[in-house]
Amino acid sequence: MGEKKRKEKAKEDFIFGKKNYKWMFIGLGFIAVGFILMSGGGSDDPNVFNPEIFSKRRIRLAPTLVLIGFGIQVYAILLNPNKK
């Protein structure tokens, strides 16, 4: 009888709840979009310079999205799922 209660209690104890996972996936989405926006802009020929690598999208927007995504991940980890 005691082992049965222990197993039931072990099944109920999850560290993260549904809210936590929702915020984690939102944060992962921000990080993925940021890295996708950072990609590209290179040149096939190493002797040719492509100034597109210094666009505002790659220098400002993409890293900002990645940092926001990491912030959302920290929030998702620290969020208490049992708080009403």
Can you walk through the features of this model?
The protein is mostly helical and 84 residues long. It has one domain. α2 packs antiparallel against α3. It is elongated. The two termini are 33 Å apart.
What is this structure's SSE topology?
Blueprint: H1 2-12, H2 18-38, H3 56-78
From the spread of the alpha carbons, the general shape counts as elongated
Radius of gyration: 21 Å
Show unreliable segments.
Answer: none
How many runs of DSSP E, i.e. beta strands? 0
Topology pattern, helix = H, strand = E = HHH
Q: Pairing-aware structural class of the strands and helices?
A: mainly alpha
Share of helix, binned: 55-70%
Beta-strand portion reads under 5%
Task: Give the helix tally.
Answer: 3
Question: CA-to-CA gap between the ends?
Answer: 33 Å
Keywords:
84 residues; mainly alpha; 3 helices; 65% helix
Question: What is shown here, in short?
Answer:
It contains 3 helices and no strands. 65% of the residues lie in helices and 0% in strands.
